[in-house]
Design a protein that fits this description.
The protein is built from six helices and 22 strands. The strands form five sheets. A six-stranded antiparallel β-sheet has the order 1-19-16-21-14-13. The protein has a six-stranded antiparallel β-sheet with strand order 2-3-10-5-8-12. It starts with 11 loop residues before the first helix and ends with a strand. It is an alpha+beta fold.
């Protein structure tokens, strides 16, 4: 095909209108296509001292019957428009139930977890399996499992929700279905997985068959964990069938920091959100320092240099991360400063 040189020359405005009508844009005019993204700190601390009163006030505003879930979402201060992620790929929030309340069953394609911040006596049903909820416990609700909550305690309970909503929305794989539950799969008794060295030969659904991980078990394991490359001790919540992450796209850890000890600066392509289980300290993200205490929540965006320092007592930090997403895509990079 020969291009005609006799075609009328359009003005720049006319040409841009034609491009817009054809839903194309000239790449040479898209500055983001030629500029490497620079990552600022982007981290943010959500203080328990600020949030607990707001959560208690939310009890007066709505109910689970009306709102499905009574939740205050943690929004990345750098998010724009309708975005509501906490950090890239991760959506986190606090959820609260009053004694006697229930949150009706539903399921969704997004993976989710619940980490109890304060309170006891609630139960989450995951595909019909009851998972008691006490402070510091981790409860999984993997993608497309039916889940509902009921609070049988005497005081309000607040837990951290963490989901991979932003990733599913970007990929177009976000689905939701309200209850009542149906087609609920059978589950083995968790006693079948009580011995870490011997597990039944069953199909792996892509997530852990253990839906509840008590805090006491994780803390006990930390006592025997060696220091990692950054100097902190950590244990990983794992799928006993694979030894890998508890869910295919969400990975969870409990970290212990020694008194007054500072970790080696660390940088990764993965994102993380921390919940302070106990103790106090400071986390520096690039050049920004965040002082934290028990039950605070802190986002750790990818591409930033991170170091932690505990106060005068040991500190325990729960971490949920999208590390598995980057590992599976062969995009995971982790660095430690010398």
């Amino acid at each position: 095909m020969t291009l005609s040189t006799d075609a009328p020359v359009r003005s720049s405005e006319e040409l841009h209108q034609a491009w817009a009508a054809a839903h194309v844009r000239p790449l040479w005019e898209i500055s983001a296509a030629h500029t490497a993204r620079t990552t600022g700190s982007g981290a943010h601390l959500w203080s328990w001292r600020t949030l607990e009163p707001l959560m208690l006030e939310a009890l007066k505003v709505t109910t689970p019957e009306v709102a499905e879930r009574r939740v205050l979402s943690f929004i990345d201060p750098g998010a724009s428009g309708a975005e509501f992620q906490t950090t890239k790929n991760l959506n986190c929030a606090f959820q609260i139930l009053n004694p006697g309340e229930s949150a009706r069953p539903h399921r969704h394609s997004m993976n989710a977890l619940r980490f109890v911040m304060k309170g006891n006596g609630a139960t989450t049903l995951v595909d019909g399996k009851p998972c008691p909820m006490a402070e510091g416990d981790l409860v999984l609700t993997p993608g497309w499992t039916w889940h509902q909550h009921h609070h049988g305690g005497t005081e309000p309970i607040i837990w951290l929700d963490a989901l991979d909503v932003a990733l599913h929305m970007y990929l177009g794989t976000d689905r939701f279905e309200p209850g009542p539950p149906h087609d609920v799969p059978p589950h083995l008794d968790e006693a079948a997985f009580a011995n870490a060295n011997v597990v039944p030969e069953v199909a792996n659904p892509g997530y852990s068959p253990i839906f509840r991980y008590p805090l006491a078990d994780a803390v006990a394991a930390l006592r025997h964990a060696p220091p990692g490359r950054d100097g902190a001790r950590r244990v990983r919540y794992v799928n006993p069938l694979t030894g890998g992450a508890v869910m295919s796209l969400l990975d969870c850890y409990l970290v212990e920091l020694d008194p007054n000890a500072e970790t080696v600066p660390f940088r990764t392509t993965a994102n993380a959100v921390c919940a302070i289980v106990g103790g106090s300290g400071t986390t520096t993200v690039n050049d920004d320092a965040f002082a934290w205490e028990q039950r605070d929540v802190l986002s750790l965006p990818h591409g930033t240099w991170i170091r932690h320092r505990a106060g005068s007592a040991p500190a325990h930090v729960f971490i949920v991360t999208d590390r598995e997403v980057y590992r599976r895509l062969d995009l995971l990079t982790e660095e430690y400063q010398a």
